[in-house]
Amino acid sequence: MSKKKQIKIHRVRSKQKRAEISKRRFKNLTRLRNLSKQGFNIEVKQYKTGGYPKKLRYRLKDIRAPRVFSMLRNTAEMCLFISNIQDQYRNKKGVFISMEHVESIDHDAIVVLLSVMIKFQEDSINFNGSFPRNHAAKKIVIQSGFIENLYQKSDLGQYYLKGRNNRMLTTGWTKVNDELAEAIMEDITPKLFGEKKTLKGLHRVLIELMHNCHNHANPEKRGTKDWWLSINSHEDKVTFSFIDYGVGVFESLKTKNENNIFKKWFNRVSSLIQDNSKIIEKILAGEMHQTVTNSYFRGNGLPAIMEAYNRNQISSLCIITNDVFVAIENGIYQRMNINFNGTFVYWEINKKTKTHPWTPST
Description:
The chain is of the alpha/beta class.
């Protein structure tokens, strides 16, 4: 074979090789772009090197997660973090949730993040994120089922996510589900108490929170705001985190009609006490219902939840709403410098919780 022919063949092969490389690159970039539109529903291996492709990441606004990723242990930073994400959502702009620097993580914060990111997915707004570099924190995120189950929505419009090892269950819906408490009791009480038990406090708390979300989360139209419930099982207790992104307790009172009896009470009290942390203490104690109805306890809303706590039917009750953080067990009623748009409630069921014999509804 002549030298000229060899050079010609070499040039053809080189050109073919370059075309193949270019084709592969284009195919990979297209695949990554498609993945970017799926948010956190990316294969776990994409994160093993700690990184999301920089070519795509720069197009999304980086929002850095707090090092302590917990609603209860780091409330102010978490509220600011969620607020920044919500701002991007309202502006219909994509976000990248940067979790590389997270050192510790609680399940309560996972359900809060999930409930926000679902909105991006539903409205087709680009979002993505990265895993924590910390091994223990990363393991919690993976085992929660957050990534692999993010988009599994039932035909009824209900999100249902179950974590690995059956440790964490998360559900999200707009409706009041009367059967949910019984299903949870059937699942958790045999492991916690050795047999099925009825937990009247759990039933009361769930019903009150679902009704509050349905009736008050959106003053303009009932039943249009999602509520989210996360359940995490431990050896000696089960923890619950409930979240709704309505207007929150105090904004709900402010937006009521001027003739509303609860609005009148709130206006009168807030004119004397300009501190929502002190007002919520009165609400939880039942003073609002007592004043309005001439009855000490009417049995609904936040006072009903507090009553369940006082009866030892639940424990470790914490509430975050608007500019208030409450930790009942520690006697904390604290005003925050940042507003949380919604209501977050945390409580526990442990082996000392008051129970009753199992009495299924059917």
